[in-house]
Amino acid sequence: MNMDEKQAMVRDVALQIILILIFIFTFLYMHGVPQRLLAKFRFRNRTSIQAKRHFVKGAQLLSQASRSNSTSLAKQALSEAEKSIALNPKDAASYILKAMALDLQGFRTSALDALDAALSPLASASLADAERADALLKRAELRIAASSQPRNVDSALADLKEAVKLSPKNAKAWCLLGECCEGNKMEEEAKKAYKEALELEPRLNTAQEALNRLASS
């Protein structure tokens, strides 16, 4: 087979492939498949935008509620968070917003449930490492606040260890890890955590006072 015959064969094969693709597209178009896919994409995109609008509005309301200690504004922020979740249940940020709005109203158990949802496999993929660390830190704070049950403290300790692993420059997480270890009589681990916190924030008085206390005990 000479060069011209090879080129002719390649052209024939390419033409056959093009004709097959045209036939497939025509068949799908006649059955409305591309139109349905496009409509579905547009719906998802519109839903995502609406969810983000509710989240942004909720975040603004929560910020105002935090500054003014307003229960009314916190309730409005909660409502916006729930609307965002209904539209996009895979966005962890909306669950975190919900948790913070609930916590501001004093509903710690419900806030913990919302953080559990944010850190679940369904939603946690939407978080960057630093964001996930912040969520773990917040959950640990709530668990320690509700530490009447030993398992809450143990769970908080696990959250804090994971938080500093994901975000090793989070001084607040290191300091709280130190407090949690100290409370569990894990003095060496507490000292290490406090030292890490001080290296990141040398003016962190809580960590320095804790180290002085542990040194004199």
TrEMBL record:
Classification via Gene3D superfamilies: Tetratricopeptide repeat domain
TPR repeat boundaries on the chain: 171-204
Ranges annotated as spanning the membrane: 13-32
Superkingdom assignment: Eukaryota
Protein known as: Uncharacterized protein
SUPFAM superfamilies in alphabetical order: TPR-like
Keywords noted in UniProt: Membrane, Repeat, TPR repeat, Transmembrane, Transmembrane helix
Pfam families in the cross-refs: TPR_1 (PF00515)
